[in-house]
Write a structure and sequence with these properties.
By secondary structure, this protein is of the alpha+beta class. The chain is about 40% helix and about 20% strand.
């Protein structure tokens, strides 16, 4: 990855999000053209019920990816898991497929899991398949 390719990297990434971001670039996706990092839907953080999606795509269309940290998404119990599933359902209602990538998968085999996500395949804990 060249300095030019990562020049416009936004701040506020977790390490797994950064790895997914750089993997997307390596696979030929362009930030702010093919996808938006931390895309706001339904009013974002400014509105009750608003959502921030880690990666919201225009190419491929109708795709979103959220990176799932174990602590914040899996170890916080049924309420957080239910919220993540509700987020997926809300996006589906808008014609958007939300794919989760578990943080440990982003760290261990980022290209495998990002390629799967770009093909609308969810290999995450919440996807029910497992890595």
């Amino acid at each position: 990855m060249t300095t030019q390719q990562i020049q416009n990297v936004p701040v506020g990434f977790s390490l797994p999000e950064f790895i997914v971001f750089t993997t997307l670039i390596r696979l030929g996706r362009k930030p702010d053209i093919d996808f938006t990092f931390q895309g706001a839907l339904f009013g974002g953080r400014a509105e009750k019920g608003g959502l921030i999606i880690d990666f919201l795509f225009s190419d491929p269309p109708g795709l979103a990816i959220n990176v799932q940290g174990e602590f914040f998404h899996q170890e916080q119990g049924a309420d957080v898991i239910a919220r993540d599933r509700l987020t997926r359902a809300a996006l589906a209602g808008e014609g958007i497929t939300l794919i989760f990538i578990d943080a440990e998968d982003a760290l261990s085999e980022p290209e495998r899991f990002v390629r799967a996500a770009l093909n609308y395949r969810d290999l995450s804990f919440l996807g029910g398949v497992g890595g």
